[in-house]
Design goal:
This protein is of the alpha+beta class. About 15% of the residues lie in helices and about 50% in strands.
């Protein structure tokens, strides 16, 4: 058998092996895939204002609300690249911790479609109210339904200073929103 026939035979064997694996279920599990990455801006409002508390004290029950805009978005399936959002998170929040915080985030995309997200986790860095924070949730309906949403927000660097010295009632940030298909 010459090298050309050998290559065709090898290629055919590979195609059959992949097809058989798909039919019999022996293919490797699908890895999570990023469906979209978006960037924008936001405003955060804290009521009551967050403050610096020494551990082991927990923060008061705080409602964090805000609005923002998605100024650019790269999505594998195409679609709108801009939109607006509003969110509300509730939990025990201080300058440096979030305790348990849950809430919702609603996105209105430029083509009049929507995404509704149930937020289940608020992760704060050491300088949480003035550094970086992360929200994690599940898109329960609309565009990207079933995806996990991670929001990584870099806030105004002076916000932590305001939080420690006087309490913080409002700050701004530049979030990145990452939609990941976990199935």
């Amino acid at each position: 058998m010459d090298s050309r026939n050998r290559a065709v035979s090898t290629g055919l064997a590979l195609v059959l092996a992949v097809a058989t694996a798909g039919i019999t279920g022996t293919a490797a599990a699908q890895e999570p895939a990023v469906d979209a990455t978006c960037a924008g801006s936001l405003t955060m409002n804290f009521s009551p204002p967050v403050a610096f508390l020494l551990p082991p004290a927990t923060g008061p029950f705080t409602v964090v609300t805000g609005t923002g805009s998605i100024t650019t978005c790269v999505a594998l399936a195409g679609g709108p690249t801009t939109g607006t959002f509003a969110y509300q998170v509730q939990g025990n929040v201080t300058c440096t911790s979030a305790g348990t915080a849950t809430g919702t985030l609603d996105i209105a995309w430029a083509d009049d479609t929507e995404s509704h997200v149930v937020l289940s986790n608020l992760l704060l860095g050491f300088t949480s109210a003035g550094g970086a924070a992360g929200l994690t949730g599940t898109v329960t309906s609309g565009r990207f339904a079933g995806d996990q949403l991670q929001v990584v927000n870099v806030r105004n660097p002076l916000a932590y200073l305001y939080c420690v010295l006087t309490g913080l009632s409002q700050t701004t940030g530049t979030p990145t929103l990452i939609f990941t298909d976990l199935e």
